[in-house]
Amino acid sequence: MTATVAGLLDRLHAQAFAISNLVTRPSEDRWRAHAVVWPRLALATMRALNNVPAGTATDPELVLLDSILQPIARSEWIPRISDTPATNVPPDKRLVDMTRVLGGIADLLSIGLKDTVSDSTAILGLRSNLLAPVMVAANWSLATAPDVARNLTPRRHLQLVSGIGAAFAFIPVGLRPGQYDDIAAVPHSENSLDAAMHNWLDATKEALATRKGLSGVTLQTIAADLSVLCGAAAATTNAAMVLGQLAEDRGRPVVEAISDANAQWREASRWPQTIYLGGVRDTGLADASIHLRQTVVDALRDGKSWADPAVVAARMKGQDLGSVARRAMHIAAEAAQLQQAAVTNLFFGKDRVMMASRSLEGATYMSKVVFTARRRGTWIPMPRHEPSGVEVYRAATNAANATAAARRLSVATANPALAPSMPSPPIAVEFTQGRIAALRTTTPSAPAQRLTQEPPFGMGSGGPGASGPAPSIGR
Questions:
Q1: What is the Cα–Cα distance from 257 to 264, expressed in whole angstroms?
Q2: Which pTM does this prediction carry?
Q3: N or C: which end of the chain has fewer CB within 10 A?
């Protein structure tokens, strides 16, 4: 099953909210069961935070978080007392489960998003989603720690964790989504569109890196498959828009941009018959291409047209259609960059392309050898800047640029559409849209730089209080 950062965050926040309602009294055994887990929990939290690209050389927030979590991760937060016998108490299972989920999020974030510029709002939202549950865990552990002299230092450490987590819990749930939620680990054997796209990308990379030489069929296949990917992304984005998962004013420009990239790749897949590449046809790419196209048909098509959005949602049950579309555009943009680089190298690099001698247009290159080849109707190496080669290069470059532009618009739909404003003072935590948040933070939050300037210590961890016409898409 495909695991996404958003899915693991859902699980982490559900775990945190479950423990926020537990009634806990100070107990030495319970405290030991918590304390033994905290070094691993702090380390997993740090890994997740450090795997979020900040986009700047210095990040004061991350420095502060590291200074709070590092001593716990290094087990320096509890003084060593030699005359106190250690009790063999098993670690608390709930905290262990949260640690495992945090570790999984850290592993997924380490995959990253290639060529994606860090967005400060997305980074702030992701940090909020990571630290709000950790705040609840810290408050729960504080409740189990007996108020004795030897626990003074560890209690202060957990109060720091609770305080910084509370600061990030100010961020409303509506401001937390971002492009990093889309990062996924996809089993290649899974019968899904995500798995078919990832398998195709792997086959594309291998085909373009072959030492046996590229063939025209390989480059035409990749270009045609990119048009299929763009069409699938446009159809999925349109379905999300029609179903109300994405606002029309944000989704319509994305569908139009992806549809333009779809048309550009269809043009780039039409190579002139006068060009010949001596490479071998890649059978792995051919198999991956067939599987990708069949998966798109099964998931998104209905005969010769795109399926109704409700049908698409039923076929892709449980998946966020907007996230699937954005992942498709990430893959398309990466493959487009590789394709465009391969075409550039063919026509302007060391590799040579053969062309029909009788189709040579540049008189500058006419020579005795060329005249002989033209008379015999044979192939000759294509001269640099031959019009037919320049046309192929132009088509690939235009398509790659259109794909990159469409990807930027698609990624932007993952970001919240709200504008920041002043937060309300928190009382406890609530569970809203699957996320831990401070109560009375329904309005968007203040800018990120205020988080390290306010001391929101002593925050509780109790339970919740009372309670148009679709754009056309190229086939």
A1: 11
A2: 0.79
A3: N
